[in-house]
User: What shape does this take?
Amino acid sequence: MSGSGHFDEMYRADGSIRPHYQPLSDWIAATPAERIKQMREAANMLFHRVGITFAVYGEEAGAERLIPFDMLPHIVPLEEWGMLQRGLEQRVKALNMFLHDVYHGQEILRSGRIPAERITGNKQFRPEMVGIDVPRGIYAHIAGVDLVRAGAGEYYVLEDNLRTPSGVSYMLENRKMMMRLVPELFARQSIAPVEHYPDLLLDTLRAVAPSNADNPTVVLLTPGQHNSAYFEHAFLAQQMGIELVEGADLFVADDTVFMRNTAGPQRVDVVYRRIDDDFLDPVAFRADSMLGVPGLVNAYRAGRVTLCNAIGTGVADDKSVYPFVPEMIRFYLGQEPLLNNVPTYQLRNREDLDYTLAHLRELVVKEVHGSGGYGMLIGPTSTEREREAYRLRILDAPDNFIAQPTLSLSTCPIFVDSGVAPRHIDLRPFVLSGKQVVMCPGGLTRVALREGSLVVNSSQGGGTKDTWVLNA
Amino acid sequence: MLSRTANYLYWMARYVERMENTARILDVTYRMSLVPKDARLADQEWYAPLNITGTLYPFEGHYSQVVPTGVMHFMTLDPDNPASIVSCARAARESARAVRGSITSEMWEVINATWLEIQKMTDAALSSDRSLMFFEWVKERSHLFRGVTVGTMLRDEAFHFHRLGTFIERADNTARILDVKYHVLLPSLEDVGGAVDYYQWAAVLRSVSAFESYRKVYRSVVTPLRVAELLILRADMPRSLHACTREAYEILQHLSRSKSSEVLRLAGQIQAGLQFGRIDTIFAAGVHEYLTNFLESIGALGTEVNKAFFATGESAVSV
Assistant: This one.
């Protein structure tokens, strides 16, 4: 099944089955195709009924689609997970220390490890945050780090999403669905539970409340029903038992944030915001934002409310800063990074630019500030025309792009109409930083459903799978 | 709780209740249309659903004639009619989606599944032999939603706002249904007390599921005075004006912070009028006039609810 130059999660190169997939493989062999078909249909129907949908930008207004769900889990053995967890904790700790540093003493810039203009001249650097102390010195309370496996199975960090990473609701709903559809599989293997994620998240959010709030009120701020991740916002608010608010539900008086309640205004201490920095506060940022709360940034700067994640975290997950994360780990923690970075060409450098333009067919080129898989070029699957058009875009503003070798992502089997077939995947575990750094054993596995495709983003036709971390 | 959330919950409940009542109105209109009668009256009765819901004018803007198939389509599956069943289902679902975090998963699933199913329906589902089944289905979805709500929802403010919406909408709808018989379906003089008149009164009772209760309470023939008494003044008749406004008043006593608020005063006044009212007095003054006044009072109560709970703002801050 494998042997085409990439690592397969289930099969070794010689076609034999890796031991942690053996029980699943036995189950597939013993289950009639008809039953599997019925279960896939049942899953689809249930997801629709429960309304686990997302909106796709650019499609008809209000269109809701399901993210395709594949029933075959992505399985991670315990010792492998332990390694990932240590690596992720190390990485997120360093990123938070970096954020504190760039908004305070800027030691790392003065030491010359990162060129200063790369940070202070970055669009994601927020001068409003300079000198502001945030509770526990934590900026990225919730991080969704994208991991891929390449070559012989080594893990790489592809992106550190530190702004408003989404997808955790699918981790939870996929697990619920699997337990409903195939409870027998959970009896065969000991699979680490993930259902306590909302508790961990709420603990994290409460732990970073302003110090004078003894029973802090936490709310989730959503851009509203038309946002692509609205389902997740509503789901998390419900699971945590906190209010789901929109900008118009909040107001600021005397640098204090209140929500408009039926019983009058109620003070808010922590805002888990799922709105980008630019839209948070029309007074401080984009004046045309209808989503934000006027005065919120002032209340935040005065330490009267905590925003999660903090303002200005984008300067640490920006693709032009990404190449320096290993250096941050060495600088702040005095440790060697446990997880690899993907080698990255920075097109602001003349040499890297020349190399990239000469090798467009082999590379993946991304916008520095882009996300969601929009606006990237995947060399090996692109047409001559697309490459030419992209070349012009790069030459127009080389600083806005980076390039990386096209990794042959690992594959994992999925159900297709003709049976079982390998497809490329990635994994997004969620790292929470409050009183301490904690994680749920698992994450969101995204899968590129088209044969050979490397794009796993849900906005680009990707699907999801349940992720099983084995307990033993 | 959040004012916006309370507002959506209240309206979600109102839309579901309205959807059910529209199905009831059409159900009864259809049944009445099967009673043999002269042609003039037959045409007239399809005006009833339009008059009850106050949509005759928009109807005439889109349809050339008041005929059964046109009225049926307009009131059930026409997405351009905001009062149609499909529009109510959509509005209820949009409200529910906006407050998913405040309702139980079961409530959301019922309302979402209703919306998904109704979208698949076509006019074929409403052909004469199947329309009664469609109305049954709509009523069942509403019953299911109410049952799931009562059976799963925490008895907190969210629950009370939901119930408040239900009873205010139901009081309004029962008054409208009754008014149609008084106002629109007035029989010609020679028909008063005749077979058609009897069937129409019976149909009004059936439309609010009150026919059997009528028999139990009065053990006698159907007369207009008693029907009006049952649907206006009886406290033990769950869709009567008295029962609905009493529930609304009790809920408002829970919800209001100040015992002297205008919303509470008005609800108490409406409730007291029904509790201590006499049917002969109402009859003497005219049932249609009485119902017109009642609809105005219920409208005013809705406005006060809005002011008291949904429009809270900075002005109320005391830091």
About this structure: The CA atoms of residues 82 and 396 of chain A lie 44 Å apart. The first helix of chain A runs from residue 22 to 30. Chain A has a mean pLDDT of 90. DSSP finds 15 helices and 23 strands in chain A.
